[in-house]
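Exercise 3.2. Students should predict the tertiary structure of the chain below and write it as structure tokens, then compare their answer with the key that follows.

Predict this chain's 3D structure.
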Amino acid sequence: MTKLSSFFFTAGNSLIFRMEFLTIQLDLNQINESSIMRIAVTGATGFIGSHLIESLLQKGDHPVCLIRKTSNLQWLPYPEIEFVTGNLQEPESLVDFVKNAEAVIHLAGITKARTEAEYRAGNFAGTINLVRAIQKFNPEIRRFVYASSQAAAGPSPDGVPLKEDDAPHPVSAYGRSKLEAETYLKNTEAFPFTIIRPPAVYGPRDKDVFSAFKLCARGIQPLVGKDKYLSIAFVKNLVKGFLLALEKECARRETYFITDDGILTWKTLTQMIANALGKKPIRIHIPESLLSVPAELSGLIGNILNRPMLFSRDKIMEIRQHFWTVDISKAKVELGYKPDFTTEEGIRETARWYLENGWL
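Answer key:
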């Protein structure tokens, strides 16, 4: 997914989350075992992945989640989940994960790195290892859904929302690594992939767009340079798109953008956030020219600490673009995709979750 908003956690298990857990448990009791589909998922412990797993459980599927020994399972407390320990950088560890799966949803990847080589290792090489494991140990897999990113397509050069068949022109190392993985899939003969390109994604449990909520809660509405136009996705809308890509035969070897309906500006988005929080923030205009110095300092600190930093020169290349906009007509026509939530509804639900869970 694009890192456009990630520059902008403490969380405990709230009463709301426990109620959600109990609701899912009750729903699972009504499922006919003969309808259960075994679906392997990478990145399941993350923000998007945890929501996807809940939806798979609710529809009666059996998720198999690839995790590390150190993975935090706080959002996955369901006994119906099967966990397999492995690593996308260690192909031999993927055998038990992919065998017997009817489908694979590949969400795992990295959104921050110090070098282009690190992005390629996390997003490109890891995908190759997973696909090769499937080809060797489960060649009859029905579907492989890959979570790419709007960053793989790049921004719109002229403000016209991009379509899936427009020539890609990523502006960041992150986007290029995602595009490489897409190209590899398309060059893998007869492999039943579907590529989903999410934009910036927001929703309960998200840590990236959460920064914008945090600033608005403190009475600050940040605007960098000229106002930016963007497509964005509420996590529950995005999960719906993933499930449709999994189910629809027409999605085989196709690519789709999945977003909320409509295009908005960053100013409008942050105003929606402020309204949802009941705040009237002060608008702070930040010249784009001021971004370079903190990005350079962040990169220097990252090199000293030997770890990637959230704010970097690579991210600035994305932040400076004016039109991160896409057209979702293809998903609507071919998949029957229709967002269940408007952006305003998604923002309100997200703000409520942050407040009820003590994040704000």
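Discussion points: The CA atoms of residues 245 and 251 lie 6 Å apart. The chain is about 40% helix and 15% strand.
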